Amino acid sequence: MYGGLPTPPVFSSVAEERLHRKQRLAASFRLFSKFGFDEGVVGHITARDPEFIDTFWVNPFGLHFSLIKSSDLIRVGHDGQVIEGGKPVNAAAFAIHSRIHAARPDSVGAAHAHSTYGRAFAALGRKLDPISQDVCAFYNDHALYDDYGGVAVEVDEGQQIAKALGTCKAAILQNHGLLTVGQTVDEAAWWFITMERSCQVQLLAEAAAARTSQPLKMISEKSAQQAYRVVGSAFSGWFQFQSLYARILKEQPDFLN
């Protein structure tokens, strides 16, 4: 039924793979801006370098998501030093992402932003419920970090977030926002997008339930597990990002430069 679907690319050189990751990273910032996930200068998405794996590419501090190009990205070491690029790095980006990438060798991409519904749901201090097919992508695969310690500019805070994330693809950071990771930048960005929407759906559903005094209908464990296998796989995350990438490429192709 699904024969002929695209698959994640295979690269002939490290340079080719690096360029691909940087372009997908820049596209993700443009998409985050388009979806309203920007809040001043906060938020960051990172891509592990394919050659120097203890370094990652990230947005320069203070440059709006809507303006970011591939050439603007900076490469940062796990020690906080900027290796490539002449612009400063957000201290929180270093504190969080350096610890995430160090703890999770499988995490090529990681995304964190202060999106509206993610922040609202994070204030509840609990995980998402299986109330829709889409949210089942996170069924038994997202964590809660419930120990907000202030602005995450210290490595210790990043270490605690990484510990809470564990082996999951996503975490709700109480009183803070959302965090997602993926085996590709594409996957990490998609998980963030759909997790933000899942937070929005649950907030709306709970508000409606409170008004009508009707309890939410939960998906059964068996069905949630089946849905997770379909919509929660690494390939599903990568694949669902591709149409969004095509959309932003058509609308704003300058991010490639």
Give a brief outline of the structure.
The chain has helices spanning about 15-35, 90-105, 115-120, 155-165, 185-210, 220-230, 235-250; strands spanning about 45-50, 55-60, 75, 80-85, 110-115, 140-145, 170-175, 175-180. It has about 260 residues and is α+β, with helices and mostly antiparallel strands.
Describe what you observe in this structure.
- By secondary structure, the chain is an alpha+beta fold.
- The protein contains seven helices and eight strands.
- Strands 4-3-2-1-5-8-7-6 form an eight-stranded mixed β-sheet, with helices on both faces.
Protein topology:
Elements: H1 14-34, E1 44-48, E2 55-58, E3 74-77, E4 82-84, H2 91-103, E5 109-113, H3 116-122, E6 142-145, H4 155-165, E7 170-173, E8 177-182, H5 185-212, H6 221-231, H7 234-251
Parallel strand pairs: 6-7
Antiparallel strand pairs: 1-2, 1-5, 2-3, 3-4, 5-8, 7-8
Helix pairs in contact: 1-5, 1-7, 2-4, 3-5, 5-7
What are the salient characteristics of this protein?
alpha+beta, 8 strands, 257 residues, 14% strand
Strands side by side in the biggest sheet? 4-3-2-1-5-8-7-6
- The parts where pLDDT drops under 50 for at least 5 residues are none
Principal-axis shape: globular
Q: Structural class, from secondary structure content? A: alpha+beta
Strand portion: 5-15%
| Average pLDDT | 93
CA-based gyration radius: 18 Å
- Total strand count, please? 8
Number of helices: 7
Describe the largest sheet. Answer: 8 strands, mixed
Distance between the termini: 37 Å
Give the % helix: 40-55%
> What is the element string, with H for helices and E for strands?
HEEEEHEHEHEEHHH
